[in-house]
Amino acid sequence: MKMMNCPLNGLRNISEFVYGGEVKSMPDHVTCSDKEWADYVFYSENTIRVVMEWWFHSPSGYWFIAERHTASDEILNTYDPSERFNERVEFDSAAAVTEEKRA
User: Fold this and answer.
1) Domain with 61 in it: what CATH number?
2) How far is CA 65 from the centre of its chain?
3) The whole model's pTM is what?
4) What residue numbers bound the domain in which 33 lies?
5) Per the UniProt entry, what are the Gene Ontology biological process annotations, in alphabetical order (predicted)?
6) Which of 45, 50, 56, 79 could form a disulfide with 18 if both were Cys (CB 3.0 to 4.6 A apart)?
7) H/E/C letters for each residue in the chain?
8) pLDDT at 95
């Protein structure tokens, strides 16, 4: 049985987790093209290496980052996103204000 270490809940069965995609730099969602956004959301390099990925622990609703080797599928490290990110990205605040003013 494959196990993964959740930074919040400890060692858990892999069936409790959902893959959330590769951690990579996000383009500016207001100014980027549709192609740039699609590349960010849907495509990855797909090479043999250690990648940082978003993972979600379904029972607790907790998102975290895992470092995984794509050839061996070995999970090398897991940690809370606050160790990498120190600010939150808000997607709809400017658009929501504009929409409210139009109504």
Assistant:
1) 3.30.2270.10
2) 7
3) 0.79
4) 3-83
5) tetrahydrofolate metabolic process
6) 56
7) CCEEEECCCEEEEHHHEEEEEECCCCCCCCCCCHHHHHHHHHCCCCCCCEEEEEEEECCCCEEEEEEEECCCCCEEEEECHHHCCCCCCCCCHHHHHHHHHHC
8) 56
Residue 74 lies in a domain: yes
CA distances from residue 63 to 18, 32, 36, 59 in whole angstroms, order as listed: 9, 26, 24, 11
Domain contains 95: no
User: Please, are residues 5 and 39 in contact by the beta-carbon 8 Å criterion?
Assistant: no
The reply to whether 50 falls in a domain is yes
Q: Do 38 and 67 form a contact (C-beta atoms < 8 A)?
A: no
Which one has a higher pLDDT value, 93 or 33?
Answer: 33
pLDDT in tens, 33-77: 999 999 998 998 889 999 999 999 999 999 999 999 999 999 999
Identify whether 64 is part of a domain.
yes
Q: How many CB atoms lie within 10 A of CB 95?
A: 11
